[in-house]
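This entry is passed on directly below:
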Amino acid sequence: MTAGRRPFGLLLAAHGERRTDADNAGVARLARSLADKGVAAEIGFGFIKGSPPVDEAIGALLSRDVVVYPLFLSDGYFTRVALPWLVERAKQHDATRTISILPPLGLDPALADVIADEAVAGAHSRGNLPAETSIVLLAHGSKQDPASRIAAERLADCIRQRRCFYDTRIALLEEAPSLADAIGRMSGPIIVVGLLAGEGMHGAADAKRLVAELKRDDVMLMGPVGKFAGIETVIVSAVTRHIPAER
């Protein structure tokens, strides 16, 4: 895939977890898969909260031209403030590098197609028709920053436009509407999509707990979306758009 393009390194930047039992392996697997596809001359990964930190991961790359891809589902504090600060710190260690940050995963219009495809497959796996199945996008949310809610609402609108499902709604972990409130009196099969990049505390525990508390056999949890197979294609397309073919 790098043929005909200037050499560059790709860094996957994720939130990460610092807990001793944290599992950041999903990002490493994604990096290996992209490397196998020859997406960039070299591929690394780093975390805002976790090891290796983003700035150290950039420093470990040999490429003079580095593209940072944020594995975040919105353009919130971590992508607007924390990530640029770490990238700037990496530049201070080596001013000769060119480092660019792409828009986060959650703002890519192609993500709606990935989610819709996975949800259609999930509905069929339970013997349900997608047109009779509702989708609830479960995002992080924040009372201090509307970015997560806004990104989730935009994704929900994109999925509604595909007219694949009976209903599409959002739910948030840290603000209203909660998952229980969002589902409310909804009937029929429901697929809850974890609008989370990885299986951190929210991806691995909170989403599963909230679905279990519903005590409904017709509700299925899928995700986090960062583990969906189509995410690789979204990243490849975004990087390809940013690094045009050499003439």
